[in-house]
Structures are given as C-alpha cells and as structure tokens.
Design goal:
alpha+beta; Isoleucyl-tRNA Synthetase, domain 2; Ubiquitin-like (UB roll); six-stranded mixed β-sheet; four-stranded parallel β-sheet; 31 strands; 33% helix
Length: 955
C-alpha cells in the first residue's frame, strides 16, 4: 500500500474500499445463508398457508448447468449467472415468487480422463472441483435457493434419471394417437390380435426372444446393431451432434470413424414433427430455432421400392420422384445392412472393370471399400470432391417404372444418417450422381428438359441439369406418363401410381437420426437394465433404483489408439465381474443376469434437471404434480409451459436443448408432467473475450506480463502479436473472479460485467476499466455515508423539483431496462442519477437515498443491503418493493415542436408533451412567424405529429 493511500484512508477511515467491500460482502452472504433469504416457497408448503404469498405471480429463472472444471471459473463464466441473478432480484422486488438456483452437471469425460491420468477417483476430483466453484460463485453474491441445489452424480438424483430411462424404455409412440403410450398397451394389442405382428404370426406363437425383438422395434429406448460414430481416442461412441463438421470429436478433437456396434438409442425421430412444430410456441432466438429446424430437416417426397432378385427390396427416399424414369443405377451407403445380402459369390458376366475396382470378387471389393470409407468423416464423404469413389456390389435392382435392371453400387457419398441409406441415382439431374456416372462410365437419361439450350443428350453435357421449373420428358410407360408435366404435377401423378402398384408411397423424411445413448466409459449413469441367459433385456424394478456405479481398478477403455479405426471398445464396468454378473429376483424367482456395462451419456442428467429443482427432496415420485403445475405448467402466453427464463450458450442448440425437449414430451405424454416443453423463454448471452498474445513461435504468453509501448506489445523484451479471442487457462489470458473481487469487491465485478455492453453481444475484457464501476460505488457510498465519521448523512426533508424529476426518470428507465435485461443501460441511468445527486452538493433527502439504494439493489446487492441497514431498516433489501415512478415527473415539462411551412422550418414552439393534435395545430397556425411565412395564402393541408412536428402545406 502506498503512503498516499495510507494517508487517504486515515483521513477517511469509512471510505468504501476493497477491504470494506470484502467485509460487507462476507457479512451479508453469511446473513442470506442463515436467514434463507432466497428460499422460494412451493405451493404445497408455505404458499398453501399464506394467501398473500400465494397471490404473487411466480417466476422460474434458470442458468444452464455448469460443469465443475478443475480450472475453476474465469471472469467470462459468471456473465450469465450474474445476469440471471440481477433479473431474479428485480423480479422479487416487483412482487414475484422467484425460483432461482444452481446445480452441477458432474458426470462426463473430463473427470474420467483426469482419473485415467492420475488414478484419482472421478468422484473425488469432481467433488473437490464443485466445492471450489461453489466458493467462487458464493463470493459473487448470487441469490440462489441453496436447498434446491444438487449434482447429477448424487445417487438420489440419478435414481430418477434411471427411472426416466425406464419410462422411455417401457413406452412406444402411437402415431395414430400422436403421443407416447406404455409398452404394455402395445403388447395388449398384439395379444388380442388388434395389431398384427410384423411377420403375421400370432403373439402366442412367439417365444420370449421373438416378443422382445418385436417390442424393440417400437420402444422409445432400444438397443440395436447400427453404424455409429466411434472415437478410439475417447474410447467411446458419440452422438451425431457430438461430432464436429470436420469429422472429429467435439471434446478432445480426436478422429471419429464409422463402426458397427450394439448400442442403446433413443427414438427421438418419433417426435420429429412435434419438435419442429412446437418451436412456434417458444420464445427463443430465431437463430436457435433455425438451427433446430435445419437439424431436424423435414422434407416431403416419396418412398420407392427397387426389387433385387432373391434379396427383397432396396427402399429409397427421394424428394424428386418425378425423375424416377431417369434412375440408371443405385447407390447404397457402405454400412447398409442389405449390402451383404445382395452381393453374389462372383462378378456377373460382363461386369465393367471400372466398376469392380480390380477385385477378384464382390465380397472382396465391398470389404476393402468399407474399410476405406470408415476412415472418412461424414463431411469428407459428402464433400464435392472431383474424384468420386465406389464399387459395384455385383447386384442389380429393377426400376419399378421402367422395368430396367440397374446396377447397385456402394459409395461413400451416400450416408446411413440420411433417408434410408440408399439412393436412386439420376445422373443427368444431380451433380454428384453426374460425377459418379462419368467416373464409372454409367448411362445417363435426360428426363427434365433443359431450358438452357444444351439439348437432351447428357453424354455431351459438362454437368447435370437441375430445375424445378422445367417440363418432364422421356418419362412414360404403358400405364403412366409424366411427359409435358411440370415438377409439382409430375410428383403427384407418379406418387399416386407408385401407391396404386404397391411399390411406393408419398412420405415425409427427416434429417434427424435417433439419439445414440450408449457410452463405453465409467463416469456416467449405469443403465438399469440386465440381460438374461437368452440375451433379452429386462428393466430393473423401481425398488432396485438407484443402481449405483461400482468401484473399478482401471477407468480407461482398453482400446485407446486414436488413429486406429479397427479397435474395439472394452468398457471399464465390464471388468468388475462381481457387479456385472448377478442373481436377481425380478418377479419370477431368482435367476442369473448380466448387467449392461455401457453408461449413459453426459447429456442424460441435464435432460430433466429443471424438474428436480422444483421438488429436490421428493423420494416418492419424480416431481409433485401440484408443484410442477405451479412452476412450469401451461398458462396464458406459454401454451407448452416451461421455465420462464433460461440463459445459456448458443452452442447447445442441437444437443442439450433438443434432447431436453424430447424427454419433456415423453414425460408429458405419459402423464408425469403438465409441461410439454422444458424452457419457454431462451436467452443466449454473449461471450467475454480477451486478448491473446503470442510470441514468434505462435505460443501464447501470459497476458498479465505483456507491456504496451508505442502501440506495440512486448513480453520480456520480445515483440508479440495480439488478437482478440476466447479467455482460458491454455491461452494464458484468464482473469479469475477471485482476483477482481480481491482488488475491488464482488459488487464492482457484477457492475462491470453488466455494464460492458448488451448481454447478448460478445465483448472484450479490460481489467483497467473495472475501476470505473468501483468509483461509482464509492460515489454512491459517499452520498449516504460520511467517510470520516461513518454516520449516515441523509436528511428528512423533501427533495426539490429537479431532483424529483431526475429520480423518477431514473426509476422509470431502470425498471424498464431491468425487465428487458438491458442491464448496461440500466447502470448508465443509475450512474447519471448518482452523478446528479453528487452535484447538488448538499446531503441527500432520505426518500431519495432510499430509492437510490433500491435501484442499485439488484445490481450491487451487498452494498445496497449495507446502506439499507444503515438507513435504519431491519429487514433485508432483497424483498423490498422496487420503486415506482411518478408519471408527473417522468415526462419532460416541455418539448420543442418544429413548425414547417413548405418544408422549411419557420417556428419552434415549447409545448407540453401531452398536447393534443388539435391544440398543437392551433398554436402553430397562430405563431407570428408562421403567419408571416404564409403571407395570406390559403392552407391545403396541415400534418400534425404531436408533440414534435407540424408541417403546413399552403394552397
């Protein structure tokens, strides 16, 4: 501490300093905890016995789950938390019963990878990280109801995650009813004969395994052998949403390959239409809605069956069924199940050498090509590469409209993740098919007449011709003709023909795929599923939940070569034989079973956590219906119900948000909750960025050690580059909230983060600018407290007209800004008012000081609480009423009205803002300058825009 600072503190011992801020903040945080200041009553508790409290409107405010990182928080992390806290405090002060709390999303890969490296049990490191983050968050003065907090790793929490999984497992989607129903209802339909089994056999004739297979085709949670995204580097499979655009894992940036494994899936595709349509009822950013719409990817077209001799049908989905006569070959995705069934033992006579790829047999060609395709990401496979790759399967399919035999290829540009994993190739009218046909010397047929003069012979074209405006040609058989029709009419006619022949039908397809729900890792929720000796899956009864994670000696997957696509997973749980192999009585006597050794993905716990906040200690049911209805039920303006305000990052648009919506809809359909959507209003906060400094090698250097000289930047004498980017430990530019709180106090940090700019816009961090908000608090303190004596300086007199007008304008503006989450402009208005009061020179009137403190309370709660107490109040500022502006003082006394004659300004009138059009017109026409400008001319029109403008048009 400098001698100057010491002298200043001696002269003003009661000045607001960092040390005083630390003392005030710690005392009030202890007070809030002890008094339960932020505890929100439920309708089944305190509200039931307090009519006045019950009459208050509710407000459920949430932040997206934080993950308890070992690095702790930097100043970018609390931006959303502070914003929701400010908003929640304002809502309390405007009469709402506010539920605001925060838990931890604590399962997942980071803790497990740390365990692999150090041998530390994931629970130990995770709980230590949570305690650190709790301390950091508490220091910020966040008004959370701590009774409702939890972590997803708490056994009493994931008991209900497992319970929800079983609800999904034990249900199916009834397309006729448009909702999920218990699987027992479906089983009853099969048993009674109301619904036929897939192969037509009577239900009673099926054995247990057959019945399980049939029900598995309908269950909303099901296990299947399917192509998956396999990441050897992480030792687990990944959902499509967890793979980046360049085919790498979102976490860790490891290569992702295609592999075929038996995995658990969630049938989210059953809800595709509802997930799409119900977006209209949500108050979400349009950009997020668009991302979800694009990810769901609804498209209308037709299903068409191409028979293959002896192997059934190849079914394709196409949005251009009008071009069916132009299909000259077919392509299957390399992973397609049908491939192995259709390939012959030998190449057919006359197979083109280019088609076979030089392989001795179709089986050899397919095996080699599949391995090649597995090493590519979906993005690489769909890229518009010049060279197309593929191989002939040796099989032919029949085009149902022409009867023509067309060769069937496999090629990596066709994906199992879209449509049926098979396409009819119309090379004359699709760019990728055109390139493939040229590469493999395949025939092309023009069936959409070009409008650019190129003619109808594709062999001389440079590229494909695609149009929705042209007419159909060369598209007729003995039963149907599309020639001369436009695309829309041709689609309708050919679809009708396909349906009449039983070889296709009009249908809707979605880009959305079922959610891959298995992870080959340790640190996740165990599946409440066991398998009998026949391999049939059985759900555990509710009485056996939670199924807790066992201890294991080794947390790492056995296969961990990030570049080897052929590695196979071995889960850590599978190594605990005593846990895996059990004898259980599931209702028909003790039997031996084998537990599922995969775990649920980290998304599982965050799919429903908003419901646990409502009723965190309920051990009898997921949530009390009355409690859920009160906090989240549908109401006017919120037809689907949900959380009133949810703040978090835009990066979760098609991961957490889509998954949580799906779980909510299933739980709603099954009658467990009244809300069919989890989050009614979504707000995406921006990012706090920081400058990254790099040396000549491109390596980040500590930002705190960089000096600026003459517009350049130096680290230890070496010139470094500077670019604005993310804040983080690895970039050596992280600033912790602890540092700022230690130097200025938490209230200053809160004010600075809210004042940096609009909440939804990214902004650069500048530690040097933090002091501006610290000085605001010092001036506020000085306006109420004498820095030398510590005495309150307010007086019990009435404020003057100017002060009243400044005060009520601030109250009006800050209140509107708080409600609209424009916290930066709210702080600007508080600053303007505080500066006005400072300039008056005399002591503040009590009524003004108290309302000033109430204005500041949501933003800087510690100093507001302290000043409120010093002003003589014994109750907390948290539950005081927010000030209400007097309209008489909000409006300006006069405004200037411009009067124009023939477009030129001829007069300026000082008039009341509330003046009527008629009175303003009369005043304008009576003004001597206007009279002179008219010079006796008649008036054709007078345009009045009270109170700002009058425009007079002479005759």
């Amino acid at each position: 501490m400098s001698e100057t600072n010491t002298a200043a503190e001696v002269a003003a011992p009661h000045r607001y300093t960092a040390a005083m801020a630390a003392d005030i903040e710690a005392r009030w945080q202890d007070f809030w905890d002890a008094e339960g200041t932020y505890e929100a009553p439920n309708p089944t508790g305190d509200l039931a016995g307090d009519p006045a409290l019950a009459a208050r409107p509710k407000k459920f405010i949430m932040d997206m789950f934080p993950y308890p990182s070992g690095a702790g928080l930097h100043v970018g992390h609390p931006l959303g938390y502070i914003a929701t806290d400010v908003y929640a405090r304002h809502q309390r002060m405007t009469g709402h019963n506010v539920l605001h709390t925060l838990g931890f999303d604590a399962f997942g890969l980071p803790a497990e990878q740390y365990a692999v490296q150090t041998g530390t049990h994931p629970r130990i490191s995770t709980e230590a990280n949570m305690e650190n983050m709790k301390a950091q968050l508490r220091r910020l003065g966040l008004g959370h109801d701590k009774r409702r907090s939890f972590a997803t790793i708490d056994a009493e929490y994931y008991r209900w995650t497992q319970w929800i999984f079983l609800q999904i497992f034990n249900s199916w989607y009834d397309t006729e009813a448009g909702r999920a129903r218990p699987i027992a209802d479906l089983e009853a339909q099969f048993e009674s004969g109301e619904r036929a089994t897939p192969d037509g056999r009577a239900w009673a004739a099926l054995n247990a395994a057959d019945r399980a297979d049939v029900l598995g085709q309908y269950r909303l949670a099901y296990a299947s052998d399917a192509p998956v995204n396999w990441s050897p580097g992480l030792g687990t499979v990944l959902a499509n949403e967890e793979v980046t655009a360049d085919g790498r894992s979102e976490r860790g940036n490891f290569p992702v390959f295609k592999a075929k494994l038996r995995q658990w899936n969630m049938r989210i595709t059953a809800y595709a239409d509802r997930l799409l349509d119900d977006l209209d009822d949500l108050d979400w950013p349009e950009a997020i809605k668009l991302q979800q719409r694009n990810w769901i990817g609804r498209s209308e077209g037709a299903r068409v069956d191409f028979p293959v001799d002896g192997a059934g049908d190849i079914t394709v989905f196409t949005t251009r069924q009008d071009t069916l006569f132009g299909a000259t070959y077919m392509v299957l995705a390399p992973e397609h199940d049908l491939v192995e069934r259709i390939i012959p033992a030998a190449w057919p006579e006359g197979a083109h050498p280019v088609w076979t790829g030089g392989h001795a047999s179709p089986a050899e060609a397919v095996t080699a090509y599949r391995k090649q395709a597995a090493a590519k990401s979906d993005v690489e496979r769909q890229a518009e590469a010049k060279d197309k790759t593929g191989v002939f399967t040796g099989a032919y399919a029949t085009n149902p409209v022409s009867g023509e035999k067309v060769p069937v290829f496999i090629a990596d540009y066709v994906l199992m993740g879209y449509g049926t994993g098979a396409i009819m190739a119309v090379p004359a009218h699709d760019a990728r098919d055109f390139a493939f046909a040229r590469a493999f010397e395949l025939p092309m047929r023009c069936v959409v007449e070009p409008s650019d003069g190129r003619g109808t012979d594709p062999s001389v074209w440079e590229d494909a011709f695609s149009s929705y405006e042209a007419k159909l040609v060369n598209s007729a058989n003995d039963e149907v003709s599309l020639d001369g029709l436009g695309v829309v009419d041709a689609k309708a006619r050919i679809t009708e023909w396909l349906q009449s022949r039983g070889v296709g039908e009009g249908t809707v397809n979605f880009r959305l795929r079922d959610w891959l729900f298995s992870r080959q890792r340790y640190w996740g929720e165990p599946f409440p599923i066991v398998y009998d000796e026949e391999g049939i899956a059985h759900p555990l009864p509710e009485s056996m939940l939670p199924l807790e994670l066992p201890e294991v000696e080794d947390y790492s997957p056995r296969t961990f070569d990030p570049e080897d696509a052929d590695t196979q997973p071995e889960t850590p749980l599978s190594r605990n034989a005593d846990w895996v192999n059990v004898t259980l009585d599931l209702g028909d006597g003790p039997k031996k079973y084998r537990r599922e050794t995969n775990t649920m993905p980290n998304w599982a716990g965050s799919c429903w956590y908003e419901l646990r906040y409502l009723d965190p200690y309920n051990d009898r049911r997921l949530v009390d219906p009355e409690v859920e209805q009160y906090w989240m039920g549908p109401r006017e303006g919120q037809p689907s119900g949900g959380v009133d305000l949810y703040i978090g990052g835009a990066e979760h648009a098609v991961l957490h948000l889509l998954y949580a919506r799906f779980w909510s809809k299933v739980l709603h359909d099954l009658g467990h909750i009244s809300s069919s959507e989890p989050f009614h209003k979504l707000y995406n906060q921006g990012m706090i960025q920081a400058f990254v400094y790099r040396d000549g090698r491109g390596i980040a250097v500590p930002a705190a050690e960089v000096e600026e000289r003459d517009g350049a930047y130096y680290h230890q004498g070496e010139k470094v580059s500077r670019v604005l980017g993310k804040m983080g430990k690895s970039l050596k530019n992280a600033v912790t909230p602890d540092e700022i709180c230690g130097e200025y106090g938490a209230d200053t940090l809160r004010l600075y983060e809210m004042a940096m700019g609009p909440l939804d816009v990214s902004r650069p961090w500048d530690t040097r600018a933090v002091v501006g908000q610290f000085r605001l608090l010092q001036r506020l303190w000085r306006n109420v407290v004498d820095e030398e004596t510590g005495e309150v300086t307010v007086v019990d007199t009435e404020p003057g007209e100017d002060t009243l007008r400044a005060l009520h304008k601030a109250i009006d503006g800050v209140g509107q800004d708080m409600a609209g989450m424009r916290f930066n402009t709210a702080i600007a208005k508080v600053t303007e008012l505080n500066n006005h009061l400072t300039k008056t020179g005399g002591p503040l009137e009590r009524s003004v000081a108290e309302r000033l403190v109430l204005l500041v309370a949501p933003l800087a709660p510690h100093v507001a609480e302290e000043l409120w107490r010093r002003l003589g109040h014994s109750d907390s500022v948290v539950h005081q009423d927010f000030p209400v502006a007097d309209p008489a003082y909000v409006v300006d006394e006069t405004v200037t009205c411009v009067v124009q004659v023939k477009g030129k300004v001829r007069a300026r009138l000082e008039i009341s803002p509330s003046i009527s059009d008629e009175d303003l017109e009369a005043l304008a026409l009576a003004d001597e300058n206007v009279v002179a400008a008219l010079d006796g001319a008649g008036i054709r029109k007078v345009i009045v825009r009270a109170p700002k403008l009058v425009n007079i048009v002479p005759a």
